[in-house]
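ok trying this again, last paste got cut off
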Amino acid sequence: MNNNRIEESPKRMNGPRREVMKEPEEVAAMLRLRTVGWGLKRIGREFGCSHHTVKRYVDAGGFVAYRQPERPCKLSGLEDWLRERLRRHRGNADVVRQELIAEKGIDVSLRTVERAVARFRQELDAEARACVRFETRPGKQMQIDFGERLVEISGVKTKVFLFVATLGYSRRIHVRAFHNERQESWFDGLESAFAKFGGVTEEVLFDNARALVDRHDRMTGVLAFNAKLLAFAKHWGFRPRACAPYRARTKGKTENGVGYVKKNAIAGRAFATWNGFEAHLEAWSREIADARIHGTTGESPAARFARDEAGALKPATGVPPFRAARDLIRTVSSRTSGM
């Protein structure tokens, strides 16, 4: 029998003893020897493996590939959390890994996180392929949103609320940092965007933020804007629009903008003061965000804005801030009623 010994394959087994994995033909020969009365140890010696390996093949009735035992995963039970965070951060697994450390106290490698969210990333990719991107004409729409981020300011991790406005046509963006997401912050962010862009779009699209929308029924479509928002919109001359509930993808340009700001303008940076942080955001918007070649339009937002959109905006020059105008109306009304 030794003269006809079958050569061993160089393929290795990932088993406990790192033995050579046998090919199907060798396993078939083992089974034939077993049927003619050979013992497990004798077969093992013949094929250069342990009798435990022979027994495994015999018990299985043929060739079976070795499967490495699955080890318990640190991320088991966090599937829903991982899916939500991956969606929130637009597929950025490294940000998810950072939040795992900060919020869950779980420190794993980026590769581990990527494996855990692989199927969720496939969901995002499928949705992206199914979503038809819509384009808006110059001056038609501006999209706004808020995003939260922990930023190191003066040596302290500070929760910052980032207001991001994106012009639908040119993709120019405007970023402001606030300490909260109250209605006054939305209005201040909008007015600073009008000032930066030098005008007002026909409509402003936003999510169903409680500071702006009193009610938006998903089933009936009934929409009730906040009364102060309607007054603000009338003052500046734009039409407010709210995304359908649970359909924030209609506001994708700004959601992409929020993620872009977090990953590009802020990630890994610390700031000495709040004023320094605000100055950085302004410089970054001007020198990086507006100057880059946009992946969808194929040109820089600044160039696209200057050529097509600047002249399409409703001029904002001479319009007083909303708060100042309301205070003036109250003062005049009070004087009139007292006469």
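PB: full thing came through this time. The two ends are 122 Å apart (CA to CA).
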